[in-house]
Amino acid sequence: MALLEMRKVYIIGDKDLGESVVKKLGELALFQPGEIKEETFTSSFKKENLETKYLEDNLSRLSWTIDYLKEFDEKKAGLGFFPSKIIIKEEEFLSWIKDFDWEKVCKSSQKLKEELETLKEEKETLQETYHFLYPWRELSFSCQRFQERKFVAYQWGTIPLETKDTLQKELEKEKGTHLDIIKEEGGTAYFLLIFLKECQARIESILQKSKVEKIEFKEEGSPKEKLKKIEQRTSQLEKRAGEIEKESRKAFREKIKLMTVYDYFYHLLQEKKVSAETRSTPYTFLIGGWIKKVDLAKLKKGLKDLSPLEIVVREPAKKEEEKIPVALSNRGIFKPFELVIDLYGLPRYFEIDPTPFLAPFFALFLAICLTDGGYGIILSILAWLALRKLKAGETAKKLFSMLFITGFVTFGIGIITGGIFGIEFSRLPPFLAPLKQLALLNPVKQPMIFLLICLALGIVHILVGIGLELWDALRKKDIASALLVHASWILLILGGILILSPTVIGTFLGAGQSGASETGLAGSNTPISLSPGNIKNIWSALPGYSKLGLIMSLWGVGTLFLFVGRKSKSLFMRFAKGGYELYGIVQVFADVLSYSRLLALGLATSVIAMVVNTIAATMGKTPFIGPVLMVIILIGGHLGNLVLNCLSGFIHTARLQFVEFFGKFYEGGGESFKPFRREGKYTAIEGEKIARI
């Protein structure tokens, strides 16, 4: 349950072996190539420039063709969140790489796409013309006949119906005008206006005031004839588009072959990029990178047939921590929770892996957000089905496995809080009576107790975070920080818990009042005296664990104040840093209160579940369809409640880890170990390990 040890590896050999070594490294999938900057090696080794443009061009053409043909997939797409790769046999892979004419398919697809785009553009143009001419569809003569003459002018146009009468009245005042209303449709009047050219200026003014939209017919032929031709041409275009789609669907059958060829070129490109990282002399080559320590023997065994080779291994140095790739090593129930670390950021190589410490808190907090035992059962079942039925990638498997585990924890929390699908245990039938004995708390009826439990868990969570920081300081041999800072914070918080416990508070108040009475300061508005005698009385009244808590807190405060700034030469700066560190007590209180969100989400889930049951019961009384409505509401309501609260619970639980927990000890920023391997974007060869897919 830690980070795997890494080693820096240099492989040196005969220059003629360079290409073979790179290919073998891809097959072994153990080695992550890296930059070579050590002067001892690079003084005589030079970097080679390798041509990759032809591979990139081929990949671009294949990618475009695959994306184009995907549009003609007749099968319904499955869940696109977790795409899986297509498994092919090795003999198929070799055959398609050798014999499949992928360039012909790419050229054909390009031609079909271009023709389809041309047809689409022409159809859009025709549709615009059609919509323009359609209101004039009853005209069986060419509108071009009505052109401007020596004494007469013509104007086609449209006008809103509400201003048509006004226009007619204005035109009646003008001599030598004729307004012909062709059609009234959709709140618009379509007209032809004939008028004397000598009146054109006045007519133009009238048309402008009446909000007339002028129409100009640029082409010969009647609107009726042109509409018919457009319909005929549109039909021809649609027919040809259908033929193109049919040809494209036929080409889609070659999709897997295209994907296989794509992955072939993709791997060649990766090999070229790895080769570009090598250094060489006229006779030798050098490649450097990272490998897991446990895989060193496998690497040497895999390369033993390629000789002569020299493999140089060294341990990573602290100064290169940012460049050292990280490989998590968690097993069993802890491994799925690596997903949370992936979301935040991997640890650096010399940092603690927080996964095993995060896992129990994450599962518990998410379970508290869901609260309901029935939801836990459903969550585990759905996650199990997803793991069994979906061909999911590594990330999806981690997510479903984490939800599967959380479902069991949620079921346990639901039993303790006495709720299954929003039904309180007190309302369960007699044969389920034993479950009533297991219910210890009702969050809806006892919210304050539930809140105190959430805050207590938050304190434990924070203490674990500070404890990990202490441990990390000890690992780095920073004993002073471990004992004087981190241990002091733990003492301060634990001491505060003892002091602020309900029993201690009650005892403190009682003692204070007693002491006040004895000193003559009793009264609701009279402050407690801090005289030596009264302090002695208060101290005497405190139980032993409260005295211990007070001593622990004072020790923690004093140590932090005096030693946090121990590295400063100025006494003032030492005390200033100490005082600022003590201001963190306020932040600790704020962090603890953040865990109240668990109460809010847990109550929300419970209350919504009960509301769903109430609505379902009410609708169930509806005659005839009542039972059907009740079932629909119960299934839809509870499933929706589960999904929404699972999502919000995941987000808020992650927030508690990222801010309150990680803020105490964890930085992150590591880079994942990604060994060079023979892998593709779309396909995987049968027999390869799933981890390589």
UniProtKB/TrEMBL annotation:
A single MF term (Gene Ontology): proton-transporting ATPase activity, rotational mechanism
Protein location: Membrane
Top-level taxonomic group: Bacteria
One Gene Ontology cellular component: proton-transporting V-type ATPase, V0 domain
Keyword ATP-binding annotated: no
GO annotation (BP), single: vacuolar acidification
Keywords linked to the UniProt accession: Ion transport, Membrane, Transmembrane, Transmembrane helix, Transport
Coiled-coil annotated residue ranges, if any: none
Entry similarity comment: Belongs to the V-ATPase 116 kDa subunit family.
PANTHER family associated with the record: V-TYPE PROTON ATPASE SUBUNIT A, VACUOLAR PROTON ATPASES
The protein, known as: V-type ATP synthase subunit I
